[in-house]
Write a structure and sequence with these properties.
This protein is mostly helical. It is 44% helix and 6% strand. It is built from 6 helices and 4 strands. The strands form 2 sheets. Strands 1-2 form a two-stranded antiparallel ribbon.
Length: 185
């Protein structure tokens, strides 16, 4: 039996919806860790937690779960551009995000103030795709970084813009403890 992920605030450290969505694996490197979207219910809970679906809505199907995993892979490709040594976002990844948004645009509503609401899981995934497109085309001055230890993405809002870890509580603490162990045998 696969345990269902319990979403806590430590899963939402990126500072952006699309980046938090991309961070839904235990770690991205040195090798991919376990998928936190273990089943349709887990994805449904994530979408509800982020207020992309109303409480009680359970429209996540196996097809939506597969689409979510594909969307996450596209976000990895888009935001790993600096790490992978590219100078531009791969066209096929950007096209994939646009296609995800286009396919599901009928499943969401865009309000005059720019806010969006979704009718179902596909609409929620369209909102995530649109968030990723927006961030890719208009990145913040701080930039999008990836954690040195686990590969989770985050917007570096630290004062010196030298943040290295997704969270000091987890990866930062582990890195400092490892460094201490190597210098104090």
């Amino acid at each position: 039996m696969i345990a269902t992920t319990e979403w806590v605030e430590d899963h939402f450290i990126a500072g952006n919806l699309a980046l938090d969505f991309a961070n839904t694996v235990y770690r991205r490197w040195p090798e991919p860790g376990p998928d936190l979207f273990t089943d349709t219910e887990t994805l449904n809970i994530w979408l509800t937690h982020t207020r992309l679906l109303p409480d009680g809505e359970s429209s996540v199907t196996e097809a939506a779960l597969e689409e979510a995993r594909a969307l996450r892979a596209l976000l990895w490709t888009v935001f790993d551009v600096p790490k992978d040594g590219h100078t531009t976002i791969p066209a096929e990844a950007l096209a994939g995000l646009l296609d995800t948004a286009r396919r599901s645009i009928a499943n969401l509503a865009v309000h005059p103030d720019g806010s969006t609401t979704s009718n179902d899981a596909r609409g929620a995934l369209a909102i995530v795709a649109l968030s990723g497109i927006t961030l890719a085309l208009n990145p913040p001055p701080q930039g999008v970084r990836a954690c040195d230890r686990c590969g989770w993405f985050f917007i570096d809002s630290s004062r010196g813009r030298r943040r290295r870890w997704c969270s000091m509580k987890t990866c930062g603490n582990q890195a400092k403890a490892a460094r201490y162990r190597t210098t104090h045998p």
